[in-house]
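Same chain as my last thread, 498 residues:
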Amino acid sequence: MLTKILFLTILPFYLALNCFILPVRATEAIEPYLEQVTESLQEFTLDNGLKFIVVENHQAPVISFVTYADVGGANEPEGKTGVAHYLEHLAFKGTTKIGTTNYQEEKKVLARLDETFAKLMANPTPELSQQWQKLQQQASQYVKQNEFGQIVETEGGVGLNATTTADYTAYFYNFPSNKLELWMSLESERFLEPVFREFYEEKQVILEERRLRTDNSPIGKMIEAFLDTAFSQHPYRRPVIGYAEDIRNLTRKDVEKFFQTHYTPNNITIAIVGDVQPAEVQRLAKIYFGRYVKQPLPPQLTIVEPPQTETREVNLALPSQPLYLEGYHRPSLNHPDNAVYDVISGILSEGRTSRLYQSLVQQQLALTAQSFNGFPGNKYPNLILFYALTAPNHSLEEVEIALRTEIEKLKTTEVTAAELERVKTNATASLLRTLDTNAGMARLLVEYDVKTGSWKNLFRELEAIAKVTPADVQRVAQTTFTAENRTIGRIVQDEEIQ
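reply #2:
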């Protein structure tokens, strides 16, 4: 499990539950849930293009908020990798009113600090370095550190956080239901008048994060090299956290330009789930978020990954337990076969009854063997990834043969009705478990709404899973799991690299 935990920790940077037991067959669980959500959900769009999805749930006096910006690592300009993630780090640094003791004076120092940084990058001298450090100290005197977070915490807010993926950036936290207007005020001001203070301090934090998760992590290094091998053109090939050189060279102006380009009201969707009245949400939204000026849509990503025509491989000699990765290109979330890929992933790696667990882990060939469907994102065509950590006294070749054998079986032999029904039920139950919390529902509804055009497609996906047949599994396996569509990654010992 350690390897999967490491993967789940690292993957979002390359690329985001209550107990709920499904007592009936998957197909029988969907209809009433969809009806319940439909009855309690309202959506509206402000004149400036900012969309809200609101779900009433009066079971507890709390509200979950998710602000979803339709921009992630895949949208970054060449040479500016990491800028989307950088914005996440600066998201709660405050505004012209929050986080500062005197913004007018702070603004002057920040401008001089940026000018000096540009000179220092062009001509690194001890004098400029001393001047820059002195300006940093001056700027810090105006900062009221974490004032935004302290306001949220003092007023009963919990879970203040954000995440950046290859596809999107999301900001989220929970408030007591009587703090709806406070959230409207804080969140709208945070995007209307952001101040990206402590910029250079966060640069060091991000560089250290990269060192921890990538440069000093064998798995992190392999993920970065694997993506760069599997994709030749699409920005999914780049790490969400960014390349170290790009991070070092990013300026405050780079971040501001990226923010102004992509954080337009028509590129933001907000989900609010909990103890609210939709009419009141709409009234307050017009007051606070209606202040945003309408703008053109940001430029859309048009790069298309060309079809792969031969097996690609990357081998890294690293101080780690040998690791094997095998990935295949697959279509985006919107493709009609998306549900089939979910089912295939479940058949191969969902729980102790899965095929990879029984053939690799139970046979003690591997310490863990899993799949990751939709890697490193799923808004665009992506990968279905398989990985296995070798067990002591067993080789990567043994793991590769055993894993490939299970994949090939899907192409030659139809899965049984019982196995398929188990996977369908587990997949449906997992999605419904997430929807059984305010926060989980908010995040899933807004993600499906933005990526697919309607939050209802989440439930259509459940219906599609229920309709998958053994013939569907075999058909998709035959077209996907081919040698020319395959990318292989290996963490090996020095003498094993040929």
